[in-house]
Design brief:
alpha/beta, Rossmann fold
Length: 249
């Protein structure tokens, strides 16, 4: 097996490193501002990532369906083009802010903090409890860009294969929970769950796994509980949520 090094087409010297550091530094500054704005309103943000077709939108739709009238959600819906996914989430009482990234060369493959800053302007944060950020479907770039979230999670479909944690370690290492989706298909697939769990543990031993079918609703109650729990939200945010509830009383 031969290794041919960098195929990016860019110079790999110090100048490129400096540019990348500047990009991430500016993004992180914006992410911190986003988080401060969310904290100011006692709102929790969760960055939900996956590959294309893993079932993120159906997962979010099922969450909204099961918690309608109980939790006040805002949704930032990231897609390269169209409002198709955002349209599927209408009718459940959630505020929805659509982000299309297709203005770039072929469309940006992830959301970044400045994009989320713009999307937050379309939400009335004072009236929300949780913002779910449905990132663009991609197992690489979304994990590398902080957007101001308090937690990261991913939807993984068992149709993707057991090897993905090892092939995309940055993504699997970045999340606090993995919602293992399409369990209704398990009887029809040659998917080795024990090997998958072993591979996840190799890159992220503290990650929590939830076995779900967003289509049938199997396992969704536990997944929703994680979204609302201190594990997902962090102690400082839970305190902020309690203060927010006191303000409403």
């Amino acid at each position: 097996m031969s290794e041919y090094g960098d195929h990016s087409g860019y110079d790999t010297g110090a100048q490129r490193i400096d540019v990348l550091e500047d990009i991430f530094s500016e993004n992180d500054r914006k992410a911190a501002a986003n988080r401060s704005a969310l904290d100011e309103h006692g709102v929790v943000a969760i960055n939900l990532m996956s590959s294309p077709g893993a079932g993120k939108t159906e997962f979010v739709r099922r969450v909204l369906e099961k918690t309608a009238g109980d939790v006040r959600y805002g949704i930032i819906e990231g897609d390269i083009e169209t409002s198709l996914d955002a349209d599927r989430l209408e009718g459940f009482g959630a505020q929805i802010s659509l982000l299309n990234t297709g203005h770039g060369f072929g469309g940006e493959c992830h959301l970044d903090a400045p994009m989320v800053t713009h999307a937050l302007e379309g939400l009335d944060l004072h009236t929300l409890d949780i913002v779910l950020i449905e990132n663009v479907g991609n197992l690489v770039c979304p994990a590398e860009f902080e957007v101001g979230e308090h937690a990261k999670a991913m939807v993984f479909s068992i149709t993707e294969g057991e090897d993905k944690p090892l092939k995309y370690p940055v993504m699997f290492r970045s999340v606090g929970a993995i919602f293992v989706n399409k369990m209704d298909l398990a009887p029809y697939l040659d998917f080795d769950m024990e090997l998958f769990k072993k591979n996840v543990a190799t890159v992220n031993p503290d990650c929590k796994l939830f076995y779900i079918s967003a289509k049938t609703g199997e396992g969704m109650d536990d997944a929703i509980e994680w979204l609302r729990s201190a594990d997902a939200l962090g102690a400082s945010v839970v305190v902020g949520e309690e203060e927010k509830k006191e303000d409403r009383s």
